Amino acid sequence: MIIVSVISVIIGYKAYKTSVSEREKPRIKKLIDEAKKLEKQLKKTIPKLEKT
Question: What is the DSSP letter of 20?
């Protein structure tokens, strides 16, 4: 059952990659970059919150 779900995820991911048009890719890349920035900010603020 787990193997079936893994295969379906891989197929879905490949279909997603091929369906994403070229003009959508920069927008998605920007979203990923923003998510990484937020992650860095959280890593900085969490230790401060733990100290208080």
Answer: S
Q: What is the mean pLDDT of residues 37-46?
A: 84
> Which structural domain, as residue segments, surrounds residue 38?
22-52
Q: Give CA–CA dist 19/36, Å, rounded.
A: 24
Is residue 35, in this structure, part of any structural domain at all? yes
Q: Which two tokens stand for residue 13?
A: 């991911």
Write the pLDDT tens digit of every residue in 9-23.
877 777 777 766 666
Q: What confidence score (pLDDT) does residue 20 get?
A: 67
Domains of the chain: total: 1
H or E stretch at 51: helix 25-51
